[in-house]
């Protein structure tokens, strides 16, 4: 078992929102053994002098699509399963190299990909997944054109979602995803950008269908995440028991306050719309989808302020596709236009950990947590840009006690 004793560092504490000097951290195997403001003694550990750099927990992206190697999701779903899977491993490795040591997939990934990472078959982040997202006919999971009448239920590795209708259809699909290893259920409860037939304002699923998904998730000891943009859609989802509110670009204050009372969590994904606006059309986004971007992009920054003032917890999310995955860290820059830096860092650590069901195990530097760590050249509280630029400011990335990158010298 390999052990490391990290010394001469400043420890980033996301709960206190500050750097702590004079700390030492002992890692044994894949876990953190000890964190102390006094010298730690270990005969077995290799001492690693960090030269005054910042040691912080690995980042958590709570809204990704690792199988989305193309922006055109209809074409992505038609890829051979082997190709879609191998491309996903490359996408996940890229995420790890940006410092994201844990990601939550919101449609497309499966238990097999999560196990492949844990088996060491490739370098990637810890993967929390929901299997395929569930959407109604003509909704955000339905990538068929208006003139495509083929049956939609094709379980391909490159498909992000599946089409289901009716209370019993939702019940069966949710049970199937949970049986296959889904850790939560994702539904499409509003129109979306990357789908051809549903305007942004369209409501997805009836209230009874949403409540059925919530019931099945609750029966399995988990929750429902819902794709949502409009205030009306968010409110009805909260009223139906949805816990994880994805996007929320058009939310209003009364609904944000209702979500707080319900104990919900929001996951804004502003980087997605910025990336799509910059390159979506060139990368194959359909014209009808390009036309929808500005509607949700406009409300994004305002929604951050509304949710922050209401006290609604927000996790970090990026929601990128294909060649846009490179913008994953842009979300830090987007949020910094509105939110305090300490809250942004908490969103990518503490809030994300709770949402992933991994509180105390990731997103913290604490005894018994996974040794998922970043060594940063500088203070991220003073300069949030240090967490961007594809890991350029990371002197080391450590995942499960193993150095993924190391330029400490």
Automatic annotation (TrEMBL):
<feature type="domain" description="Amidohydrolase-related">
    <location>
        <begin position="54"/>
        <end position="390"/>
    </location>
</feature>
<dbReference type="InterPro" id="IPR057744">
    <property type="entry name" value="OTAase-like"/>
</dbReference>
<dbReference type="InterPro" id="IPR006680">
    <property type="entry name" value="Amidohydro-rel"/>
</dbReference>
<dbReference type="InterPro" id="IPR011059">
    <property type="entry name" value="Metal-dep_hydrolase_composite"/>
</dbReference>
<dbReference type="Pfam" id="PF01979">
    <property type="entry name" value="Amidohydro_1"/>
</dbReference>
<dbReference type="GO" id="GO:0016810">
    <property type="term" value="F:hydrolase activity, acting on carbon-nitrogen (but not peptide) bonds"/>
</dbReference>
<dbReference type="InterPro" id="IPR032466">
    <property type="entry name" value="Metal_Hydrolase"/>
</dbReference>
<dbReference type="InterPro" id="IPR051781">
    <property type="entry name" value="Metallo-dep_Hydrolase"/>
</dbReference>
<keyword id="KW-0378">Hydrolase</keyword>
<protein>
    <submittedName>
        <fullName>Amidohydrolase family protein</fullName>
    </submittedName>
</protein>
């Amino acid at each position: 078992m390999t052990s490391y004793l990290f010394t001469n560092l400043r420890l980033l504490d996301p709960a206190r929102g500050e750097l702590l000097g004079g700390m030492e951290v002992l890692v044994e195997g894949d876990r953190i053994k000890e964190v102390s403001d006094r010298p730690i003694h270990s005969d077995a550990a290799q001492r690693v002098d960090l030269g005054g750099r910042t040691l912080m927990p690995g980042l958590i992206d709570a809204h990704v699509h690792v199988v989305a190697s193309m922006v055109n999701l209809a074409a992505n779903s038609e890829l051979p399963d082997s190709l879609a899977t191998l491309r996903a491993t490359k996408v996940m490795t890229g995420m790890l190299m940006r410092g994201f040591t844990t990601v939550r997939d919101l449609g497309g990934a499966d238990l097999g990909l999560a196990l492949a990472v844990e088996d060491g078959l490739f370098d990637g982040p810890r993967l929390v997944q929901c299997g395929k997202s569930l959407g109604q006919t003509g909704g955000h999971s339905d990538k068929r054109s208006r003139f495509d009448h083929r049956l939609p239920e094709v379980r391909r590795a490159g498909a992000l979602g599946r089409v289901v209708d009716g209370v019993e259809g939702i019940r069966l699909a949710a049970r199937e995803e949970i049986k296959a290893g889904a850790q939560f259920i994702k539904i499409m409860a509003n129109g979306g950008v990357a789908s051809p037939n549903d305007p942004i304002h369209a409501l997805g699923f009836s209230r009874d269908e949403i409540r059925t998904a919530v019931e099945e998730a609750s029966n399995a000891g988990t929750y429902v995440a819902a794709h949502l943009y409009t205030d009306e859609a968010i409110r009805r989802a909260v009223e139906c028991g949805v816990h994880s509110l994805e996007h929320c670009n058009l939310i209003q204050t009364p609904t944000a306050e209702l979500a707080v009372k319900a104990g919900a969590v929001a996951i804004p994904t502003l980087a997605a719309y910025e990336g799509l606006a910059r390159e979506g059309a060139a990368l194959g986004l359909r014209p009808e989808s390009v036309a929808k971007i500005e509607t949700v992009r406009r409300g994004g920054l305002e929604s951050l302020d509304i949710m922050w003032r209401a006290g609604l917890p927000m996790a970090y999310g990026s929601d990128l596709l294909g060649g846009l995955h490179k913008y994953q860290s842009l979300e830090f820059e987007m949020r910094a236009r509105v939110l305090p830096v300490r809250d942004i860092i908490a969103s990518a650590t503490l809030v994300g950990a709770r949402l992933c069901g991994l509180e105390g195990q990731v997103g913290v530097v604490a005894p018994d947590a996974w040794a998922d760590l970043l060594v940063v050249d500088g203070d991220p509280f003073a300069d949030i840009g240090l967490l961007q630029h594809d890991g350029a400011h990371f002197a080391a990335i450590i995942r499960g006690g193993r150095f993924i990158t190391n330029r400490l010298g």
